[in-house]
């Protein structure tokens, strides 16, 4: 079905790596450009990362917050989507190396929007015990782990095991950690409370630890205090000034104190994906590629890095790793390339338009800081819900998400409480049967 | 939260193994019985197996066709639900052996509703290459495999690989095989057709093989012919009288002919779970426990086997392995036990009330045989949809499923087209980053 015409075959090649907010925005901004756009992502879907915690805590299904990238872009005929893993870039030869694709893929323009991964601050051995939440796979594994802990408690009669199983530690007091802790508290205390016979799921111990002096450092202090009060009311113990000194099979050591637990979730830090490494350009301490004012990298006006994996300073401070920055940078770079193809003059430097910050705690509370308004409570939660629904890429996801949220609000039911094992036990299939 | 009163502690113990249609129906029929009911299932959810193929082909999400068993039964206070694997039964000591539970669990009454697994007719080595569809895990793996085949084609330029990747063989012409083949055809030819650039997903080759003389042997011959015609129209090649002689890494050998493919799906046969083996009772050729007219096993009036894993003859023919038989037997046995606890006389023998047969092919066609009515086409499809919606256990699943079906009908979109890898690549997390 290669319907490329002779003219199209001469169009410049643009490779976008990553189908997150940044990559998708760049591809869309190129929709009318005379170019052959190739978008490559490791997975087949765009995922709305800010709602991953709702999949992990059984509110939403993976399908609500993720959409097949090729479906999102299928009407845009100048885009080809590949599910594949980029392993490197040869900036001299202008090619991407892609796992499973025999020949390197040439580009005239390259947009890297490869995001971040978790940072364990030099302790990669923590990863095994303290998973983070960046992909649908992570979210489904979290869900299995949280629900599985309750199931084990119900079937094991020994209370000393229960203590470890029912202690949940969330490391990191940013929005992700705060939202996750609140959601686990609600899951246990509201949804699951009446469904177990042999122990009380509401008896769980939930601790949010933050190394810094307070949670939600990107928000005003008054909002952080309101969020802390709300978390405490939901039964979350908030420990600030509490750096994690060790994570192992038995739990965590926080400021000298050993907390025994089998459930540690990591929301403490990120580092840039290998984009800077591929390009051989300077990176900041978090591994993010330092980019120029137009998001290109020094000495390579044809290579751009956007979103979480780029480090761009505005007013002496690096832009935060949030969806809005990625979307705006992606769109900016897409338009810049489209303009350059048309011979237009270069646009002014990228400028971030800050639409504010939101974080939610529990079902009827959020904190919000936007356009000079600071508020905590139900109104902020409504804004939060509205904004998040809006950013889902598919109409069907919006309808589904609205339905799930309404249903949960009315019934406190969480419909996605499934433990789906990644593998069927092979022996169960081949076991001999008496006959 | 063990709120068992002194009276309750003296109630007889009833263990139900399996939370499928049979086990759930038995538990519900015991809702008012003075008994301590323990329902044990390997998974935490009841799954509506007849719709698993719709998860495998990206129409529905796992959450639509599955519900947490403890949620379904949470209002029934005499039931405790355990997610655990039963490994055996000691009929002399009247205990169940359960993996991960240190002490054997005693029962006064035992109901085994453990279902079936796939049968490869003595060739268990086929399982690796020709998975079957019985669990959510199976369905998610099917979905990954089907969608993954298209993704590989899009990124590999060599057409000889495409041939193997784009050939799909479904083994078994019963309702499961027929529905699955029709759904794969629609997925490729309607939903995916416009979304790939380098090859045409509609060019896939789809073969349904059946060893017997025709498909849908449980239906009238005219309906089987109508279904064959519909499948052919959808682009499925139907081969009957075509026994599978071998399945291996390269594909299948069907009646002497080698078909090269990486996608073989097994819908050809089942065998009973080890229930008969656990009990040491006689089993039929498919490994199903032969039961008496009241679903109990010989010499053990306190042990019952229901559903797919039981073999009960009516009019000289064993009852079919369908949901209706399991539901009716489960309910019968639950009521029988409840009656016996009240000292009521034994009920008459179990009698199956046959509500008929349905199978669907594509979006606007089904075949139906019920109450003397035989019909093929849109009307049967509407009945099919109505019946299937009705049997979903949760209201929320019904609403969600109706929405997805309507959406697909209107837009031909399949919303659940996600490839979710079971594991995150560990190295991606611990890989060093340039800084």
Automatic annotation (TrEMBL), chains A, B:
Residues 13-330 form the FAD/NAD(P)-binding domain. PANTHER family: EXTERNAL NADH-UBIQUINONE OXIDOREDUCTASE 1, MITOCHONDRIAL-RELATED (PTHR43706:SF47), NADH DEHYDROGENASE (PTHR43706). Belongs to the NADH dehydrogenase family. One of its GO terms (molecular function) is NADH dehydrogenase (quinone) (non-electrogenic) activity. It is an enzyme of class 1 (oxidoreductase). Gene3D superfamilies: 3.50.50.100. The keyword Metal-binding does not apply. The keyword Flavoprotein applies. Its EC number is 1.6.5.9. Keywords: FAD, Flavoprotein, NAD, Oxidoreductase. InterPro entries: FAD/NAD-bd_sf, FAD/NAD-binding_dom, NDH-2. This is NADH:ubiquinone reductase (non-electrogenic). It catalyses: a quinone + NADH + H(+) = a quinol + NAD(+). The lineage of its organism: Bacteria, Pseudomonadati, Planctomycetota, Planctomycetia, Gemmatales. It comes from the Bacteria.
């Amino acid at each position: 079905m290669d319907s490329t015409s002779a003219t199209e075959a001469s169009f410049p090649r643009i490779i976008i790596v990553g189908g997150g907010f940044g990559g998708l925005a760049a591809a869309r901004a190129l929709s009318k450009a005379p170019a052959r756009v190739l978008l490559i992502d490791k997975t087949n879907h765009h995922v709305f990362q800010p709602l991953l915690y709702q999949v992990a805590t059984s509110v939403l299904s993976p399908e609500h917050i993720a959409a097949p990238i090729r479906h999102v872009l299928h009407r845009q005929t100048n885009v080809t989507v590949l599910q594949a893993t980029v392993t490197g870039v040869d900036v001299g030869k202008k090619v991407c190396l892609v796992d499973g694709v025999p020949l390197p893929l040439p580009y005239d323009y390259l947009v890297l929007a490869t995001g971040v991964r978790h940072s364990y601050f030099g302790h990669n051995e923590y990863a095994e015990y303290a998973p983070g939440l960046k992909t649908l796979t992570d979210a489904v594994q979290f869900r299995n782990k949280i629900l599985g802990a309750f199931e084990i408690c119900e079937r094991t009669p020994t209370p000393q095991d229960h203590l470890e199983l029912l202690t949940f530690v969330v490391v990191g007091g940013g929005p992700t950690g705060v939202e996750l802790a609140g959601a686990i508290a609600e899951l246990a205390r509201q949804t699951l409370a009446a469904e177990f016979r042999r122990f009380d799921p509401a008896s769980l111990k939930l601790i949010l630890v933050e190394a810094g002096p307070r949670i939600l450092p990107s928000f005003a202090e008054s909002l952080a205090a309101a969020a802390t009060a709300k978390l405490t009311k939901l039964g979350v113990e908030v420990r600030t000034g509490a750096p994690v000194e060790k994570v192992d099979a038995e739990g965590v050591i926080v400021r000298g104190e050993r907390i025994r637990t089998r459930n540690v979730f990591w929301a403490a830090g990120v580092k840039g994906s290998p984009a800077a490494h591929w390009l051989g350009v300077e990176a900041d301490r978090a591994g993010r590629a330092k980019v120029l004012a137009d998001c290109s990298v020094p000495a390579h006006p044809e290579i751009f890095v956007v979103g979480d994996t780029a480090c761009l300073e505005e007013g002496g401070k690096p832009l935060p790793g949030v969806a809005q920055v990625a979307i705006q940078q992606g769109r900016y770079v897409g338009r810049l390339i489209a303009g350059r193809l048309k011979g237009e003059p270069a646009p002014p430097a990228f400028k971030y338009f800050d639409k504010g910050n939101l974080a939610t705690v529990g079902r009827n509370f959020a904190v919000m800081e936007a356009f000079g308004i600071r508020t905590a409570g139900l109104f902020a939660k409504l804004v939060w819900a509205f904004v998040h629904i809006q950013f889902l890429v598919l109409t069907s996801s919006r309808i589904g998400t609205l339905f799930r949220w309404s249903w949960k609000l009315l019934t406190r039911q969480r419909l996605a409480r499934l433990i789906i094992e990644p593998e069927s036990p092979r022996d169960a299939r081949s076991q001999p049967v008496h006959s």
